[in-house]
Each structure stands twice: as structure tokens, then as C-alpha cells.
## 1
Amino acid sequence: ARRATTMELLHDKYFNEEPLPVPVSELRVPLTRNTEDEDSVGGWQDYNDMGSDSDFDDFGPVSFTRTGTGFSIQFP
């Protein structure tokens, strides 16, 4: 097996197609969990109760901003 060249990768569909089935501008995140949502394990901040060994506390605050082409996530 050989490695792909840079030019081959630049023309690969992985880098040319929109990765989501809908535009980013149409994605919605519910503000709160309702009682009908039984599949949800909890709110966005309930990660500590899930038994995860991830170091989410090291990230600190998170800032989400819409941009002209999608969104930006910043860890100030």
C-alpha cells in the first residue's frame, strides 16, 4: 500500500463534501430537556454523573459563536 499524495487528498470527496446531512445554520440544540425525551442521559452539564474518566473540568468555560460558514468553539 502506498500513501496518497497531497493533490490526491485535496481532490478526495471527504474534503469537498459537506459533512452534515443539513446545513450548519439549520442545526438546533434544545435549551432544556423535556419529560418526553427519555433517551437523553441528561443535560449538557451532567457529564460528571456519567462515570466518565474524561477531564472535562480542565477545559473551563466554552464559548460557541456562529460564523459565516458554520460555528466556532472557543475555550477562553
## 2
Amino acid sequence: METKRVCVEISKDEEKKMNIILIARDKDLNANSKKELIKEALKRFLNEEMQKLKENL
């Protein structure tokens, strides 16, 4: 079975890199599901970064 991957990368530098990989042809994941998963992952990432900033103040 051939799979395609959708990758969203958030990085400030090479050490702080986050990849979200979704299997594009997964029958259980439609476009809206993928969009929601990406949004949730981005929210978590941003919340973690904000927490780090607050701790450093």
C-alpha cells in the first residue's frame, strides 16, 4: 500500500523542531480530521512555548 505523508514543521532552530506527520490515505482521517489534529498540535506547541517564556521572566 502506497502512503503519502503530510508534514507540518515548526522550528525556530534545529534543536526546537516539531513535526506532525499524518498518513494522507488513512481511511479514518478525512481532511477535517487532519485539520483538527494539526490545530490541536499547534495549540499544544504554542502553549508549551508560552509557558517556557513565562518561566524565564
## 3
Amino acid sequence: MKEETMKSMLSVLSGLVIGTSLILGFASCYSWRKAAGSTGEETRGALPPKPLVSKQDTVEVEVLPPARSDTSHMVTMKPAESVIETWKFTVQIGAFESRENAERLQKLAEEQLQKPVQLAVEGSLYKLTVGEFTTKEEAYSYRALLQKQYGSQYSDAWVVPSKK
């Protein structure tokens, strides 16, 4: 039974499609004939008539020089200077929780190295640094010199960057 229902539905649908196509075909022929005018002439393949060309009036145009703008109120801007952060490098020779221990090594290191040793407080640590170098390589070279000359006394020294 389902098969018969399907067949009848298909035949109804195909009839609707064919009918719709015929109606649309006739309607388009009618609208084309109506657009061409109801003269009864055959209009298939005819092109619409060309518009008539008429003379145009001539207009004189006066060309003016470009207008000058008033720049007296304008402000000239200088390009922003580029900000370059410069970094220095130093060799940290110790970090202590006790201020007394840091000051004791600071005094000893200044006598040994014949250079000023800086004491900086960062959080709960007292850090000792020596030297100020423009490149990392110079700082590493100085650290190697300390380790070579004084052995284990500065074996834990390391290079640290600092903004200057």
C-alpha cells in the first residue's frame, strides 16, 4: 500500500512541476510582448530602440588656482625620541640574611679587590656586588678573574644585570 501511495504522490508532483513550468513560460511571453508595445508585431529577438542623440549645451568652466590653506594655527610635531633602556652588568659576590655578615664580607672584599663593593637590600636579603660593566662579556670576564685569583672564596659569584 505504501508503494501505491508513493507512486500516486510522484505523479501528482510531476504534474505540478510541468504545470508550473507551462504557466511561467506563457507569463514570460506575455510580459515580453507587453513591454515591446501592443502593436501586434513579432517582438521575439528584437532589441529596444536606440535613444536619439541630441546636441548638448556647452558650459564654460573657469579653472581656479589651488586654494592656499592657512597654516598659521597649525602645530608642528617633533618625532618622539626613542627611549633606549641601557643595562649595566655587575658581579654579585654574596647575598646574606644578616646585615652584619654582609657588612663583614663587604669590608673584606673591598680590601682584597681594591674596589668599592655595593651593599643593596632586596626584600630580606643583603646583596653585595662589585664592578659596573657595559657588556655581559666584561662582567663574565671579571667573574672568571675573581674565581681564578681567589678560588673558592668567590666560586658562587654570578653576573647580574641592572638598569642604569
## 4
Amino acid sequence: MNKVEEKHVFVVSDWFHDNEAEDAFPVAVVTSLEVAKQKAQQRAKEAKQEFINGNYSEERLSIQEIDDDNFGPAFSLGIFYEPDGLVEQVSVFEMPVNFGVAITDLTNSGK
């Protein structure tokens, strides 16, 4: 029995960042979880650099993977600043591509 692989949309959400830039998050991409994780890691590094540019001490900033059971992201990274704790969070959420979209199934069209 062939299992049809369902495509998913991964939304990379930067929860604390000022999202006024043209390329601001959240960004939805039809891709794999691994690619979405890479995008989240890239955004976390950019956010860390923004804190450094804002006169935060680089030595006191760290990026760590976190478990966030409250909202159920597939993957989350936190930017932490000692002693303040979590200062920014970048998360990847997964949802079906066909969420709210009509899909025509052509697999049994009789051709």
C-alpha cells in the first residue's frame, strides 16, 4: 500500500522581533522541517547580532534550543541574555498545505 506523502507549510515565527522590514517574519515556506530549522537558526543568529549591535555583551548572549509546550512549535530556539533570561524566541510551526484550501485529487482520474 502506497502512502501519499502530505506536504506541509512551515511557518518560521520570530516572536519578539520588530517585524517592519520587507523580509520580516513570519515566513511560510512549503519545505522540509530541516530547511525550516535552518531558516530559524539563521534568523536566531541575525537576532543575536542585532542585540550585539544594540550594545548587549556578546559573551552574555546565547542561542539554545528550547521546548515550548505552550504553543506546540515543531522547533524553537531562544536567544538568552544573562541575567535577563529569554529575550527573543524563533519558532517553526507546521501546518498542512491544504489548510483552508480546496485540493483536487487527480490520483484516480481514470486517465
